[in-house]
Amino acid sequence: MALMGYRAYSRHAGVTLRAVQKAIEAGHIKVTAEKKIDSDQADRDWRNSDDVPRPIVSIDQPEKKSLSPAAPGSVGRRAAPDSDDEADEGDVSTSEYRTHRASREKFSALKQELEYRQLAGELIPVEDAKRIASTTFRGIRDGVLNVPARLKDQLAALDDPHACERLMESALADALASIDIGRLLQEQDE
Predict the structure, then answer these.
(1) Residue 56 and residue 16 in contact, taking contact as beta carbons nearer than 8 Å
(2) How far apart are CA 23 and CA 45, in angstroms?
(3) Which domain holds residue 28?
């Protein structure tokens, strides 16, 4: 009499854990008060029951000790793992799946946050930002480059270098201050 857990018995019998659970729920396999399965008794009950799933036999593994013949159509399906190494492979793939799933969920949440912030008006599309920056810098450039053309006659009439410097500083400050970011943002909204 070997007492086994559900998973250990499923590996012993060559069936899935769910098949063992269904057999227990249906009353085909008895469990002890400690929720353990007596493998000898369960093997006999398994053989004598007609509606309990049969062991899975894989085409690429040698047939393991089975309690009954393989069900038709079960060829090619993977048998329950024979060792802890094979069980670990399942754990690794489950772990990888969970890692990829978490990564996907993270990026999905980030995307939703960006969409929300854009709808709330906190963000603008890159193309709009590039257009606003280009318009702003073009306005600054044009304003600064127009200063000499506007001041040439006034500067020619002045003899005092300090007066020339004050006039140029004032004109440059006016040119730079003429850029209205609020107006540009308003144009972008329209």
Answers:
(1) yes
(2) 10
(3) 1-81
